[in-house]
């Protein structure tokens, strides 16, 4: 296994009006993303990540039980099984963000990690769940209506090409989990997102490069593009990117186009940066106890 790994990040707009049935959204989006995953692999990508809950609109703009129909079991649901077959065919690792159902009426915002031979390695469940207004007209990131907070910790997956961690969208505002992914051995952390202009865009190119620097790993940030009707809560501004452990952008996508962003990570850079800065050596975890105390 070489030190240089080609990464593919897929950003795309939702092509179906939100009033359409859930199964129409899923069919159209899955067809589109299968095509884009194939394009990424054809361009040499060995690890490919899709955007947050890729197979539909950002339905959390409203609170509607209709969207519970989008949830599937992981890994036994049809979407995970389909992409396991695709990963095996292409010889590529796939990070697959989906809406997960567990039992009756329990739901998570989840990403399945599939190895290059189609093996399901495990999943990450989004830990930090937002519930904030955005865009007016009652729209917002109403995620507590749809998702239970994650309960699987901060796993790192030893794939065929790199040690991979996952953080999902709103998680990126919390440095604690980003640190734990580094402590657990991540060489690259993927953050599939759905975020709009006017709320936190000014942080998009600030926080995650800071995580990369503080933890000495690569970060791959993925955002969808376009404005989604009928909510029109704001512009999903794309600009998916890969940033290295020095905080330098390796590649960045367009603001408003469907795109497969291709970039290369180099594990030698991880070693060089960690040997230079030694942040892990100089940590003082025995002094951080107050961080896990409940505030009054």
Could you characterize the architecture of this molecule?
With 296 residues, this protein is an alpha/beta fold. 23% of the residues lie in helices and 27% in strands. The chain contains 6 helices and 16 strands. The strands form 4 sheets. A 6-stranded mixed beta sheet has the order 5-4-3-2-1-16. Helix 1 packs parallel to helix 2. The longest helix is centred in the first third of the chain and has 21 residues. The protein starts with a strand and ends in a 19-residue tail after the last helix.
SSE inventory with pairings:
Blueprint: E1 4-11, H1 22-42, E2 47-49, H2 78-90, E3 93-102, E4 106-114, E5 120-125, E6 131-133, E7 140-142, E8 156-158, E9 163-166, H3 175-183, E10 188-193, H4 201-204, H5 207-215, E11 218-223, E12 225-226, E13 236-237, E14 241-243, E15 249-252, E16 259-266, H6 267-277
Parallel strand pairs: 1-2, 2-3, 9-10, 10-11
Antiparallel strand pairs: 1-16, 3-4, 4-5, 6-7, 8-9, 11-14, 12-13, 14-15
Helix pairs in contact: 1-2
């Amino acid at each position: 296994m070489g030190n240089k790994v080609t990464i593919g990040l897929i950003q795309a707009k939702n092509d179906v009006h939100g009033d359409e049935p859930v199964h129409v959204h899923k069919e159209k989006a899955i067809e589109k993303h299968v095509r884009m995953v194939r394009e990424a692999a054809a361009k040499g990508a060995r690890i490919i990540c899709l955007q947050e809950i890729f197979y539909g609109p950002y339905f959390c703009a409203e609170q509607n039980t209709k969207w519970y129909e989008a949830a599937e079991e992981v890994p036994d649901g049809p979407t995970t099984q389909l992409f396991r077959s695709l990963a095996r065919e292409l010889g590529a690792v796939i990070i697959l963000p989906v809406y997960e159902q567990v039992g009756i009426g329990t739901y998570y915002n989840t990403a399945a990690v599939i190895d290059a031979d189609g093996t399901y390695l495990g999943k990450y469940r989004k830990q930090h769940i937002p519930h904030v207004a955005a865009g007016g007209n009652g729209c917002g990131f109403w995620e507590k209506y749809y998702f239970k907070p994650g309960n699987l910790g901060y796993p790192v997956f030893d794939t065929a090409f790199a040690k991979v961690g996952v953080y999902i969208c709103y998680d990126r505002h919390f440095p604690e989990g980003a640190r734990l992914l580094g402590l657990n051995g991540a060489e690259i952390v993927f953050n599939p997102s759905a975020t709009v202009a006017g709320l936190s865009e000014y942080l998009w190119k600030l926080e995650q490069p800071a995580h990369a620097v503080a933890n000495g790993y690569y970060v791959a940030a993925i955002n969808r593009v376009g404005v989604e009707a009928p909510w029109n809560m704001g512009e999903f501004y794309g600009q998916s990117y890969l940033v290295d452990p020095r905080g330098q952008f390796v590649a960045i996508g367009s603001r408003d186009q469907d795109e497969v962003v291709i970039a290369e990570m180099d594990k030698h850079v991880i070693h060089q940066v960690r040997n230079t800065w030694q942040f892990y050596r100089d940590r003082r975890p025995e002094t951080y106890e107050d961080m896990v105390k409940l505030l009054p």
